[in-house]
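Minimal example, chain plus acetamide.
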Amino acid sequence: MFIKIIDARIKILTFFFFTTFISINAQNINEKYHLVPWPKEISENNQKHLINKDFLITVNDIDNKRVLKATTQFLRRLSGRTGVFIDKGFTEIITTDISPSLLINFQRAGKLELYEDESYQLIITSKQISLNAVTDIGVLRGLETLLQLVSHNKNNFFFHGVSIKDAPRFPWRGLMIDVARHYEPIAVLKKNLDAMAAVKLNVFHWHLTEDQGFRVQIKSRPKFHELASDGQYYTHSQISEVVQYASDLGIRVVPEFDVPGHATSWLVAYPEIASKDTIYEIERYAGIFDPTLDPTNDKTYEILDDVFTEMAPLFPDKYFHIGGDENEGKHWDENKKIQKFKKEHELKTNHDLQTYFNIKVQKILEKNGKIMMGWDEIFQPDLPKNVVIHSWRGRESMISAAKQGYKTVLSKGFYIDLMLPIKSHYLNEPIAENHGLTNNQLSNILGGEATMWGELVTPLSIDSRIWPRTAAIAERLWSSKDVKDYENMLNRLHTVSYRLEELGITHIRNRDVILRNISDNQNIKSLINLTKICEPLKAYERNKGGKEYKTYSPFTLFVDACNTDAIDAINFNKTVKMYLKDKSKSSKETLINFLDKWVLNNIEFQEINNNPLLKQLTSFSLNLAEISTTIKSGIEQSTFSLLNYNKSKSLLMELKKPIADTELAIILGLESLIQNFGKEYVKS
Ligand code: ACM
């Protein structure tokens, strides 16, 4: 009925106002509702559903644990946000004599498997909210949308009156967390699972083993957790706890045991399966290392069989990731026995040898009811067609795998550890134009995963590296291809990002925790201002070559308090552009406010600068103040002496250098202003 009215209304309006009305209306809708990911279909009715103490949820199947837990959490989050003392703290079964605020209907419990139905339909009127879905997982997705629709005026909290029909674009929408480079406690994983569910991600890829650690208890081979984990590993019961927690949120868990390379920790425990006879120690640095399993040794497969057979029932998901990346095979080349084996088996290259290994591993997994998944490097047309190729080096491998009938998942472009801006991930469309794939082949592209590699993150900083950028990736993977207005998304993301705090995500608040640490609890205002213009070095420039930071180095530094998309830098650079275009009074004022801020900031910074941890920022803060003063004089006096021009150019040179592992993100704006002064005012 409601939808019919909306449809009729839109039809009539379209008739009178032709298409411009619809596009303006569509524009308004996604500015008004801060939904991430943006739903497939949405229309509004201008009603409000008030939230008061009588708020009541009923559901058609009260025995469904997933929905019961989700609705209970929903009620807690709702009362937490609104301050409303809701009378009924738990969901009730639908009866004919109760008219609930939120009426939930679904047909069946969802299975945690690829292609499961996650669709839902949400209709909100002043009288009632109805949420309908095929599966309980669809109900969860709808509840998250509903929570994003909470709004308020001066007197009331309410849900916006809208009608939504929603379903994901891709069935595989993941986040990988590397817990091997740095161990992440269960509590960190759980809150990140909550946040994943909040933006409708559905795969947690758990990267469990690396050169730097083996993070799982293996009962049949205890040397793994005893010798190769520094005591930081997950027990069987902890794994089950995480898998269950994820399952309750409608999230699949895909484990990764990275072999044959990235496997120093395996060889710390069992050096007898190494390709080189030497002493192995847990790796403390970052990088690509030579240790690799011996694919010619029967014992290797015996141990792999023990590990995978023990792990298979703990991870009920069908898919099992074996890594397979960056095995350069140097130790294979140095080993005469392995060389002889290659010749005997007519394996020409190390890639052929790795394929030999992969095929044997795939058999072990198949025996355990699992489908093998691996990074790009495992791709080889001899593998069974159900193997999934995880593309990280380039889109070409994804397209090539899809063409040859393999399912694939994209991570290229979703590497959040590169510390690249939100925009680069958001606009990383998995299916680019001119892909040359048939519809059948296109369906092999399952989706994507954000990858949180763990070299430079600890529990203190991991949330700020994952969020909010992963929410933008979640939209890329859930919403239609044509939802790609970056500025619009950013506006929505702003709200959704801070709401993640409700789930315990520390991406915002830990900035100040770190700044209090490095200032020994002095006034951190000036440091906060610096984090608003400094961004962590990008593309692995921090810890270049992997030789500066060990796994146990401090990750409590100024750079760890900084993030991508530094807000003052974005606004300053934008203002410079505007000013140079229009020279308007308002853009001039805004620019001068920024410059004054940085001059004053230096005075405040020097007041707290009494601590070795802040020393690295001293000359940066001074130079920033000086360049600000110089540029301000140019703006205010509409003239710029050659002396000032040269001075600002040399200050700029200094400011371009890395600052305590960060880069100054206002360089572009400063440079444009100086160049402009050079052209307009400086007379040689
Ligand atoms: C990878 O980044 N080595 C998969």
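The domain at 33-166 is CATH 3.30.379.10 (Chitobiase; domain 2). Residues 325-326, 375, 392 surround acetamide (CB under 6 Å).
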